[in-house]
Write a structure and sequence with these properties.
Helix content: over 70%
Largest sheet: none
Shape: elongated
Strand content: under 5%
Number of helices: 2
Structural class: mainly alpha
Length: 64
């Protein structure tokens, strides 16, 4: 599960930086920035859901 979480974090950061790149390159004239940020939001919500489901089913051990 740690690998999956790390992959999601990497994809979220990659999407964030691609949105920044498109914002600088297109100077706000294109919708590529919005698409990249939309992908980032979808990935973030999916990661949150995976973490909540993982804790519910005990895929992540609780630290004491």
């Amino acid at each position: 599960m740690r690998v999956i979480v790390l992959i999601f974090i990497f994809l979220i950061l990659a999407s964030l930086f691609s949105a920044l790149y498109y914002l600088i390159k297109d100077k706000g004239q294109s919708d590529r920035t919005v698409k990249a940020l939309t992908i980032r939001i979808i990935l973030s919500i999916t990661l949150f859901a995976i973490l909540m489901i993982g804790f519910h089913f005990g895929w992540f051990p609780r630290q004491s």
